[in-house]
Specification:
Blueprint lengths: L5 H26 L3 H8 L1 E3 L2 E4 L2 E5 L14 E4 L8 E5 L5 E5 L17 E2 L7 E2 L5 E3 L8 E2 L1 E4 L2 E4 L5
Antiparallel strand pairs: 1-2, 2-3, 3-12, 4-5, 5-6, 6-10, 7-8, 8-9, 11-12
This protein binds FE2/S2 (inorganic) cluster.
Length: 162
């Protein structure tokens, strides 16, 4: 730099300043929400799951979801690889429940129901009912639940897809 002419130094500064501006612009573009991505999440499919009006839809006539026709049974649904699966249970003739399979004690995964009770895989002794409410500690909070509805042969779950 000591042997550089003043004009060279000026050009170098202009170049570096321009590069920095370009970098800021590029990082801003990646933070902008993509309308096309949001549209896909309103309707269509995600990881093989059907989405309608922003809700996950499970058709109980499909063999992979048939377990939910039995009261007391449940299913685990993989949404993304980063999260623990969603659990859906059949609570009664007319009701289902949907909640996270991440235990509220220390984050271990919750197992599918047996005899109407969901146990935590940790072996700590935590159990939950078919709607994800704590039955026995150590957890003190219910499982994170999501609004769900059974309409005919279809289950709708308002799971946050973003
Ligand atoms: S992590 Fe579930 S009971 Fe401890």
């Amino acid at each position: 730099m000591q042997n550089m002419q003043p004009d060279d130094l000026l050009n170098r500064r202009k170049f570096l300043s321009g590069s920095a501006k370009l970098l800021v612009m590029l990082s801003s573009f990646s933070a902008l929400p993509c309308a096309c991505t949001n549209k896909k999440k309103e309707e269509g499919r995600l990881d093989g799951l059907v989405i309608d009006q922003g809700k996950l839809v499970f058709d109980l006539t499909e063999s992979r979801y048939r377990a939910l026709n039995t009261i007391g049974a449940g299913l685990k649904i993989e949404i993304t690889r980063q999260e623990k699966p969603l659990i859906i249970t059949r609570v009664s003739e007319t009701r289902v429940a949907a909640f996270s399979s991440e235990c509220t004690h220390a984050g271990y995964e919750i197992l599918l129901p047996e005899h109407g009770i969901l146990a935590c895989a940790s072996g700590h002794g935590g159990t939950f009912d078919l709607e994800g409410r704590v039955l026995t500690g150590p957890p003190i909070s219910n499982l994170q639940s999501y609004p769900s509805q059974l309409t005919g042969n279809r289950v709708y779950v308002a799971y946050p897809l973003n």
